[in-house]
Design brief:
Layout lengths: L1 E4 L4 E5 L5 H18 L4 H17 L1 H12 L3 H26 L2 E2 L6 E8 L2 E5 L7 H12 L3 E5 L5 H13 L7 E3 L7 H6 L5 E5 L2 H14 L2 E5 L4 E5 L5 H13 L9 E7 H16 L19 H16 L3 E4 L14 E4 L6 H4 L6 E7 L2 H9 L3 E2 L3 E3 L3 H8 L8 E2 L14 E2 L2 E2 L4 H5 L3 E8 L1
Parallel strand pairs: 5-6, 5-8, 6-7, 8-9, 10-11, 10-16, 11-14, 13-14, 16-17
Antiparallel strand pairs: 1-2, 3-4, 4-20, 9-19, 12-13, 15-18
Helix pairs in contact: 2-4, 3-4, 3-6, 4-5, 9-10
């Protein structure tokens, strides 16, 4: 397994894949550790998680460079990612015990209540685009709840995977509570089917999610899936255009556009379409593309060569079918998997840019007549992860939010995950929730206790 710097196309390090005996030992350690970790008082589990936040902050500079080297995230964004991981750890170190406390449930019994007990070793199949955050988003509540974790990370970020495991060790978690194993994607089904794995969480593509869900279903194991998205960014006639442009650019082009919850389809009411399109294209053209280790860089490389090729194909096919390029539309010459920040207009739902997930720095502008058509177009997608709605009429916004088929509706703001709020999608964007009280209770046995 090789780690390749997408900005230079050079090999950073080659890693040895785990063989069958190593995989089996990791599973056995996770199972053994669970038996004692589940009985460790939740307050002690919280102390470890609080120390984990400290370790992340102490090593932020080093860990951020690992992220940027392996998947090309601009360094300032990589530092923000580590900080967010620490915040998530602190949040569950603070509120975890309260979220796991027994809940009285009156019934015909003299006493009845619900308690939340850990399930066991959880397999986490995680993606490369937020290589630390996606892991800590799940792992912090999972270990506070008393579970153990085996991480199978994306094959292009093995250094991130091993670095994450080191932070858990440094924070004082017992052996086996959190482990990273370097295996190819083809090993996922074998891991899911192992009797020692209690449940599975996956963040990734729809294909990977479907395969993992099928394997888990065959073994009758709980899954949480956070899959793709083609999030609508809906701009109504009375929107604050200046804020919508600024936020829209950030939402689409953060992490070089490689985000499940990035704004991808900009659905704009006809009367303001031209004004928005001009301002938006101007702002995108001003973004600075460059080496991701340079602090002023806003757009780095795509994480892999094949990802850039996929973006090129989607853009070229969309243009051939009638879309117009306002900005960008081509790769940058030279080394690195760079692609110019791109704005397409005249995009319709039949074009690749209008119906597929475009996982890179490409914004699709779509024109609608009115509010009703805007919501209909937003829902005309197999995905349902996030959405952003822009209007000054908050009563209308609240009403329209109920019509949007998405796990999240952000009104006059950018879709973002927050430890205090549930995160997840509907339709082909997956099921289950992460973060908040909903996230920590995904991987527990919600046990009823009834006393006569």
């Amino acid at each position: 397994m090789q780690s390749i710097n997408p900005a230079t196309e050079e090999v950073i390090t080659a890693y040895q894949l785990a063989d069958e005996s190593e995989i089996d030992r990791a599973l056995e350690r996770a199972d053994t550790a669970f038996r004692s970790w589940r009985r460790t008082p939740v307050q002690e589990r919280q102390k470890c998680t609080r120390r984990l936040a400290t370790v992340l902050r102490e090593r932020k500079t080093e860990l951020s460079k690992v992220i940027t080297s392996e998947m090309g995230k601009p360094i300032a964004e990589a530092e923000a990612e580590i900080e967010k991981c620490a915040w998530n750890c602190e949040t569950y170190a603070e509120i975890g015990a309260d979220l796991l406390a027994n809940k009285p449930a009156p019934s015909a019994a003299s006493e009845s209540y619900v308690q939340f007990l850990p399930l066991g070793p959880i397999l986490a199949i995680m993606p490369w685009n937020f290589p630390f955050w996606q892991v800590f988003r799940f792992a912090a509540p999972a270990v506070v709840a008393g579970n153990t974790v085996i991480l199978k990370h994306a094959s292009n970020v093995p250094g991130c995977s091993q670095s994450i495991a080191e932070t858990f060790q440094e924070a004082g978690f017992p052996e086996g509570v959190f482990q990273s194993i370097l295996v190819p994607g083809s090993a996922a089904s074998r891991l899911i089917g192992d009797r020692r794995i209690a449940a599975v969480t996956l963040t990734g593509s729809n294909l990977a999610g479907s395969q993992a869900a099928a394997a888990a279903g065959a073994a009758i194991k709980k899954t949480v899936l956070e899959l793709g998205g083609s999030d609508p960014f809906i701009i109504l006639e009375d929107a604050d255009l200046e804020s919508a442009v600024t936020t829209g650019v950030k939402s689409r082009f953060q992490n070089t556009g490689q985000s499940c919850i990035a704004a991808k389809r900009f659905i704009v009411v006809e009367k303001i379409f031209s004004t928005f399109a001009d301002r938006f294209a101007e702002a995108v053209a001003a973004l600075k593309t460059g080496q991701p280790m340079e602090r002023e860089t806003q757009i780095g490389p795509l994480a892999r060569k094949d990802l850039r090729e996929g973006i090129e194909k989607q853009v070229e096919e969309s243009v051939a079918l009638g879309a117009q390029v306002l900005v960008g539309g081509q790769r940058l010459p030279g080394k690195g998997y760079f692609y110019k920040p791109t704005v397409l207009t005249d995009v319709t739902p039949t074009l690749p840019a209008g119906c597929e997930e475009v996982f890179g720095p490409v914004a699709a502008l779509m024109r609608v007549r009115d509010d009703e058509e805007a919501i209909a177009l937003a829902n005309n997608s197999p995905f349902g992860l996030g959405s952003s709605l822009w209007t000054r009429d908050l009563d209308k916004a609240r009403r329209l939010a109920r019509e949007i088929e998405a796990g999240q509706v952000f009104i006059n703001g950018m879709v973002a995950s927050d430890p205090r709020l549930p995160f997840g999608g509907v339709k082909e964007s997956g099921y289950g929730r992460e973060l908040s009280e909903f996230g920590i209770r995904e991987f527990v046995n919600i046990q009823t206790v009834w006393i006569k």
